[in-house]
Amino acid sequence: MKYFTTTVLSFIAVFLGIACNNASGFRIEGTLDNLPKGKEVRLLEFHANSLPTMLLKTTSDAKGHFRFEFEAPLRPGIYLIQIDRQQIPVILTEELSKVHLRGNYPVASGTNMARNNITIHSVEGSAATEQFHQLLTDFIAKRIGATEIEKKAKESKNALLSAAITQLFFGRSTDYVDLFEDALERLQAQYPDLPFTKEFANYTASLKAQAEKKKAMERIKVGMPAPDIALPSPDGTIYRLSDLKGKVVLLDFWASWCRPCRRKNPEIVRLYHKYKDKGFTVFSVSLDGNRRANTPQAKAQARRRWITAIKEDKLVWPYHVSDLQGWASEPAKVYGVSSIPRAFLIDREGKIAAVNPRDLEKAIQNVLNP
């Protein structure tokens, strides 16, 4: 396979400012409904351990169509189509003649990617790209969660797709180091000479070092008694964590404004209903509020958002508490919580059984049935 180097492609992009015109070569193109004419579209090469490299840029036509053309296929790797501040992943795993993406450009698109996502609903020419975007669509629609995504990464037959799922979904999370190591092992077997494989190896090593440092600094460790928490619920009732001794408890730190927390909530709700009659419950500590916004009005607003999120996500267990101090929350300090969602599984004796377990259901089963 003939590869264009990043240096050559970057030179072409700077010198010409447009893609080559060679219909017999390789092309990546897309058609997005509502994409305005003349919108700048960039093609970037994704790097595991550094910023993406811009390869080419073009503009959209009146039908929302754009195209990048090359004299030869690009090397296998992860590429990004950038429009505004949004990036659409394209995963090239083999020699292809064409990749065509179809989707929608949000009418109110802007810098708020969380609310105005470009959506891809079909892909031709790249099975890996199609699988990735189906996974992303299901995730955004809350049809699947982190557990299902992790499973897809492990089950993928192609190491590049596995690496793309791992890095683009789990990013800098030190909780998934073993997933990165698994993807790296397969990359080294399938694509030993690919520059991305070396980049991914360096990134994985860095993430592993961060995980080991973080673990050494953790205040709460498996086997130690869970520090008590006593805080008010939205209606003012004081709930104590220690009062739940005798039950298996998921101590869950979250907030109404935390999107990963909200995406995780359906799974917690499912597990609560499945195991509550066997002695399992949830004790939720919200990091809503802000110690600097401590006026009665600010606190009331934070409480309303907290209550609304509880209702919207159907968090039906009674144990919801918060001091409405945000990151200055006293329990968060005691438990060393620096990011959310963050969870601790507590056994019937009130001792820490697991810290932020990845497979939460398996962890619950192990503690319920030791």
Describe, in plain words, how this protein is organized in 3D.
- The chain is α+β, with helices and mostly antiparallel strands and 370 residues long.
- Among the domains are: 1-111, Immunoglobulin-like, CATH 2.60.40.10; 230-368, Glutaredoxin, CATH 3.40.30.
- Helix content is 36%, strand content 23%.
- The chain contains ten helices and 15 strands.
- The strands form four sheets. It has a five-stranded mixed sheet, with helices on one face. The chain has a four-stranded mixed sheet with strand order 4-1-7-8. A four-stranded antiparallel sheet has the order 3-2-5-6.
- Helix 3 runs antiparallel to helix 4 (159-170), helix 4 runs antiparallel to helix 5 and helix 5 runs antiparallel to helix 6.
- The longest helix has 23 residues, at 195-217.
- The termini are far apart.
- The model is unreliable at 1-23 and 109-115 (pLDDT under 50).
